[in-house]
Specification:
heterotrimer; A alpha+beta; B alpha/beta; C alpha/beta; A: Gyrase A, domain 2; Alpha-Beta Plaits; six-stranded mixed sheet; six-stranded antiparallel β-barrel; about 30% strand; B: alpha/beta; eight-stranded mixed sheet; five-stranded parallel sheet; 17 helices; about 35% helix; globular
Amino acid sequence: MSITTDPKIGLIDGPFQRQLEALSQSRSWYNWAGYAAPSTLDCIEFEYFALRNQASLFDISPLFKYRVKGSEANKMLNRLVTRDVNKIKVGRVAYAIWCNQDGMLIDDGTLFHLGNCDWRLCCQEPMLDWLLEAAWGFNIEIIDESATVAGLSIQGPTSYSILSIAGFTLDNIKPFDFYQDRNGVLISRTGFTGDLGYEIFFPHEKASDLWDLIWNSGSDLGLRAIGYDAVNIARIEAGFMTAGIDFMPVQSTEYLHRGQTPFELNIGKLVDFKKGHFNGRRALLDLKDKPRSCLLRFDVGGFKPADSALIYHKKKYEVGHISSGIWSPTVKKSIALAHIKTQYRNSPALFAEIYTLKEGQWIKRMEKMVENKSPFYAPPRAKQTPPFKR
Amino acid sequence: MIDYDAIVIGGGINGIAAASMLSSKGKSVVIIEQQSELGGMAAHKREGPTAAHLLWNLNPKVIKDLGLGSISFDDLTSVDTICVCESGNHIRVKNSGAFYLDGRVVDTDGSFRKLTNRLSRYGVLLKKLAENAPFGTDDKLNSTQDILRLLRFGLSLKLLGKSQMRKFLQDILMNVSDFLLDDLPDGPLAGLLSADATRGQFSGPRNPGTVFNLVYRYGHGCELTRPTKGMENFFELLVNAIKKLNVDVKTHVRAEKIVIEEDAVKGVELADGTTVFSNTVLCSSGLNSMKKMVGISYLDIEDSRSIKNLRTMGTTAKVNLKLSKLPIFENIKGPINDCRFIVAPSVDYVDNAFNSCKYGHFSQTPVSESVFTFRQSEFWLSSIIQFVPSKLEGGWNEAAREHLKQVLVHSLSAFIPSLNELIVDFEVITPNDFAEDLGVEGGNWHHSEMSLDQIFNLRPTPRFSAYRAGPKGLYLCGSSSHPGGDIMGLSGRNAAIRVLRNTK
Amino acid sequence: MEAKKSFDAIVVGAGHNGLVAGAYLARAGMEVLIVEKNDWIGGAAVSRSLNEGWTYSNCSYVCSLFRREIARDLELPKYGLQIIPYEGGASFTRDGNYLAYYSDHYALRREISRFSARDADAYQRYATAVMRQCRFIRPFLLRNAPDPTSVRPRDLSEMAFLIKRGYELGTKELQDTMRFWTMSIGDFLDEHFENDLLKAHLAGSGIIGTGLGVYSPGTAYVLLHHYMGDIDGGIGAWGFARGGMGAISEALENSFKHHNGRLQKGSGIDQFIIKNGKVKGVALENGDEFYAPLVISNMDVKRTFLNHVKTEALPEDFKKAVKRFKIRGSSAKLNISLKGFPKFPSAPQNASFLRGDMHCTESLLELEKAYDQWKAGEWSANPYVDMLIPSQIDPTMAPKGDHMMTVFVQYAPYELKVGNSRSAEHWTAERCKALSESVLDQISIACPNIRSHIEHMEVRSPLEIEKEVGLTEGNIFQGELTFDQLFFNRPIPGYSDYSSPVKGLYICGSSTHPGGGVMGAPGANAARTILQTQSKNMHMTGYAS
């Protein structure tokens, strides 16, 4: 009896597998929450420039999505996340983070205020157990929508025009607003690219129809389906952090003390100490002024991507490392997100130790790093309402 | 605006101990108790005698805090144990010696005496731990005080001598069955000790860690007493004592809600609509009631999970039998109410009694501790009976209660053959009844199981082990905190000391 | 050549720990003799062919705990050792369903989701919690446990290491660790999961080989004991030794012989020769005598000191403590030659878990009931079975097209109760047969026609394991893994450094720290201690030093 693979092991199909497979020339799939998700479909450069220059279509269905509803939904969510959800109006989306009791970041995600006491939370990490734990004793209902709600992210300068052609009226939709039509389609002006763009959520059974609608609407506007590799460049340019890469979701850290506080990740402004108690508040009050390290944006000298480089103060003392580093095709710079020990965060003499392998030869460079306080790339079109039509 | 320096919720022994400690240091204190009288679980009663019918380990320091230096041998009568045997060869245990009723020595090789001596020796060590907050729970990690205490404890271990220390470090982790049977034959004496080790617990004698419970119970001097004038009188004594200490007492009113502003305690809202204000609240209830009063939003998610996971299964019921007259025992010398009667003929018997409890039944061969009491002109036989699950299969209906009573009477009949004819009335108080009357989760006598993973700095939960919980100014002083149950008052006292230190 | 009679060291018992200790000593330059009572070596790590064509891993049957440091130091792969990881496992239910365990993270998630979406999530939390404890404990395995009562420099330095590790954890983590160590596996699982089948599947590792139930405090540690191993860095992974567990012993033997070690099979020890409180050698049952200033016993502590040392050589306290050491037989074993491959009707086509560990228990209460029956002196009517068919991956184990099945059975008492008497003598052939019927009934939940495939079956009661292997009561760990018998309390308080009151007499079996399982750590630790304290010019080198 020869050994055949177990049918239940391996990557499974998402709602757009048929479409993506037809487009996949590079046949390069990666594992996103168990789904076969494209790293690239064709090649990373073209996909990236479609995103920044025309419009890109990216399947975000593998995100974890949870519905939180019931009379005490706001109360429970305010216990969970660090910002004040009472300030998020119906029809708005908000970026939110949540911490454990010790003030260490569990995950980040987006909160959609769908209606009175009705919310949706989208995040990278599975969170059902934690949400149910947080909901114990509250009059609310938590529904795991991960496998029933599909999502597409359409990003880029022509995304607004494509959706207009598709028949969606998004003229007054400002960043972090969303629009819901009667067929259960939700379009929010959000994204992971820092560019003009939208995320669309809808029930799984509508997946094919929606794909076709958008795909056809984009035919004259350069719409291109893309994989995660291109998105990754865009998100670093926008300065966004990724779970498991730029921060360690504390619940899955096996080694101790590998969690990080929002203050160590430079997102302390999302922590609202005035709103009342929330999980981790007492610890965060204590840790607020004692970050061990800090996640910062840097321009790195030279022309080589600096991913995973160690950082030295005065080329001598190791003081941190780069968690995300790329050559940015748009700003034409080597850029990086890096963790620096707090006492060195203002050091004028930080160097990244970059190794490159060229034809069998390793070359080591020490490149100077300069902190960049703003996002590396933030085009005005991302905020303009109504967006420019082309 | 402050009405009191501190509010104590719950007037059980720990609430009383906490209040008296605080008051003796000049703090103004009020106790809020939902029952009409103080005494909590120990004083709980319906028609018959109080739930606790004997005093085990009331700590001398607590008595001193109460200004009850006058409690003396006149007020407390020491109690002998009579191990009931089916064969009729009942055994009397007196001053850690064991005798048949005709006076012959049971323990001819002295192994029982040696064992109980060993337990007392260990007990002295545990007592040192019990009289202080657990290590490592100080607000500041590794405070010098903590380290000094740890060193001092290490030294007292060393002073045991090498071989004794080794023995201690092994024995304390053992299960009581192995511990006993290594030195004693299985029989009524081993049964007695294993019953004492598991009383109030959801564990059988074969569960590792039960030696700890035994040491704990025997350690505080190994002295078993009853108040000479009855338990009720004893509680009156306590009440008078705290009144003398100028502690205000509000009985018959429930603490509804703990008022919190900006993550700090401001007072307690009572069921009658009034609010008492204070920046410090000590809560002697179990954690679930605490959670209700504080509001779950003020607790971290990990903490509410710990509360949910707390093991609080009650296993102990009370059966009180009202008798037409006292049975006569020709071979028992001395007053009959100076004895407690234990039905636990062997370790195996205790283990079997526990087994059925795991599956939602009570055993047909239960373990019990019975005491005769006189109240006014009534005669009662007060029995603590184990193992009786709070979650009984089929529920606690009248038939189940009647059945439990019959099971008890049957098991006592080896000793009191005429018992059935003497009964004129009876009451069965199940773990659920305790839970209902007192708000004690699961009806557990120690608020939460005293197993190795729920004691010391893990009690009640690791994060609450510094007697602190949630918002600023909220303290835990009930027996769910270190060191735990057994009418000892130390949880309350330790919590009060923590309050005094933090408010210095 | 005249037989040599004097050696630097003699190891009594060629179990895996004896072989490890012997190999390390030989490697350091000692002249070492290992004596073994059976005609074969390996103790409980053996492969035997009791039915022609089939190879049984008679006792131990899977491998994970064996320390990689030892395998590397003793160059076991060079001497033929090959460990093959196996794929997942499953628990079958009476209503024709199953819960599979996959090492593929998301496949496992989806599988658990079939039973509870919440548990699928909670599994991550559970696995992280267990892994943290594994990481904490692993460095202690190849170190001696300090005697807390002693002020000897090496005890103090070990104590300092322990305190340092604890300090690094910080208060909260230390509390979590203490809590984990003192918990029952049942309570630990109840805190994480809601589904009974999942809990039952995971709980098995907490009770295998012990006289404890799933709700007995301390069983969470036992779980750790089964999880802290690794295969090529994959912590918690289990595998088969190619050729059966005897392959480990064989590789050890080869390594030992490569370093000029000598092996003497076929006659067990009669007495340790002791003069003036010092060990001088061993006298075998066949009358042979061998001499050495160092004798290391691979037998458990009870057997070593109560059966083979003259009682006047030992202090009274020590003897008493040894007598009190708890070794409880709680498991039995079935080794089965299968004709063809039986059908597991509920398993899907090509299910990988058929090549893993399979069980037929549905709830924790079922396990607890099985334990209650053991306490009462009976074998469990619905025993916990851990069954594997290694011949699917390792074709050397059975003839072509046929298979070998190994079934571990929990619980079976050593002293069986019949009427009012409890005795090991009650394990007659008929009762062994009756036991195997209970087990086969249980297996039938997963594999209803198992009986029709059986070509040959070896039923091993605790008594039979004791008689053949020399494990007291047939206990696989050479002593209960309870708090009072672990770390500095193992085997006897004050003697956790592998020594004994008899000068030169050491023990290296699983009844010493860190305990049982085919781990090799006790053997390596004993060898290291001996070389450190008894030898000036020879040293332990390598990763286990």
